[in-house]
């Protein structure tokens, strides 16, 4: 499922404005609903999360906080917890100066934010509660392994992975290190300021040159939200990715490697 509705680009990061945005969203949801919030690694994400959370709690919504996880992980948690809505804070391929909010439901469908943000709203009764899901990355990695099945044998491979210093910087190498023989990390050390800085889909040449220097087999480049990817092979160059796991760059990339290996084996037998 691809995002068919444009995300909300934040032009104001003032906590009071974000609080009112959270209130407005909460008032459009069923009373005592469940909202999941995920974020990328930018420094402002903590402020945005805290402000939206406060507004949602004031509107009587219960909030589950995931911390830094990719967009596909948010989709997975929203679905498995049967939440009313999920909010992703971040942007896939833009500069750090641009922050966006994506809104999606349990089926993965994107939604628009409320058009009007009230100046003030009364507190709901009862107020909502907030909890943190500390193992969200681990849950997503296990979900990916289940989706890939027992045929995901990559133990003979050396893979270079570029996490764009974004939301997939932890999950992507964790999954690949469980599947592959060796993994070289690029763009997997976010510091809050370096998202897409010389890495990610805007700089695929980093994976290409690193793969050649390390004599690796495949290179996987992810966007900052983990929703799209590119795949490079040491001999065949950039490979086409299509069909599988639309909207999940990590799953699409691993399935692309498996499909290419299968094609190579079939070609060698023929």
UniProtKB/TrEMBL annotation:
It comes from the Bacteria. Pathway: Nucleotide-sugar biosynthesis; GDP-alpha-D-mannose biosynthesis; alpha-D-mannose 1-phosphate from D-fructose 6-phosphate: step 2/2. GO terms for molecular function: metal ion binding; phosphomannomutase activity. Its cofactor is Mg(2+). InterPro entries: A-D-PHexomutase_a/b/a-I, A-D-PHexomutase_a/b/a-I/II/III. It catalyses: alpha-D-mannose 1-phosphate = D-mannose 6-phosphate. Keywords: Isomerase, Magnesium, Metal-binding, Phosphoprotein. One of its GO terms (biological process) is carbohydrate metabolic process. The keyword Metal-binding applies. It is an enzyme of class 5 (isomerase). Residues 13-91 form the Alpha-D-phosphohexomutase alpha/beta/alpha domain. Its EC number is 5.4.2.8. Belongs to the phosphohexose mutase family. This is phosphomannomutase. It comes from Ferrimonas marina.
């Amino acid at each position: 499922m691809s995002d068919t509705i444009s995300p909300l680009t934040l032009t104001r990061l003032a906590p009071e404005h974000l609080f009112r945005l959270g209130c407005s969203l909460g008032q459009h949801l069923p009373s005592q609903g469940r909202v999941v919030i995920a974020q990328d690694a930018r420094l402002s994400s903590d402020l945005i999360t805290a402000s939206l959370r406060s507004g949602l709690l004031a509107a009587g919504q219960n909030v589950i906080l995931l911390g830094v996880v990719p967009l596909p992980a948010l989709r997975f948690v929203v679905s498995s917890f049967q939440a009313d809505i999920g909010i992703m804070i971040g942007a896939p391929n833009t500069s750090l100066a641009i922050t966006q909010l994506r809104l999606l439901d349990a089926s993965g469908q994107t939604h628009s934010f409320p058009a009007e943000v009230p100046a003030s709203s009364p507190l709901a009764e009862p107020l909502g509660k907030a909890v943190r899901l500390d193992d969200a990355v681990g849950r997503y990695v296990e979900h990916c392994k289940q989706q890939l099945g027992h045929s995901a044998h990559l133990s003979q491979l050396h893979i270079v992975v570029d996490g764009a210093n974004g939301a997939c910087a932890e999950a992507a190498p964790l999954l690949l290190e469980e599947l592959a023989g060796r993994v070289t990390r690029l763009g997997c050390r976010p510091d809050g300021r370096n998202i897409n800085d010389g890495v990610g889909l805007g700089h695929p040449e980093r994976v290409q040159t690193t793969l050649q220097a390390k004599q690796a087999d495949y290179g996987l480049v992810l966007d900052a939200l983990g929703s799209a990817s590119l795949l490079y092979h040491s001999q065949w160059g950039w490979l086409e990715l299509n069909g599988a796991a639309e909207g999940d760059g990590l799953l699409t990339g691993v399935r692309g490697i498996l499909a290419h290996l299968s094609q190579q084996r079939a070609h060698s037998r023929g």
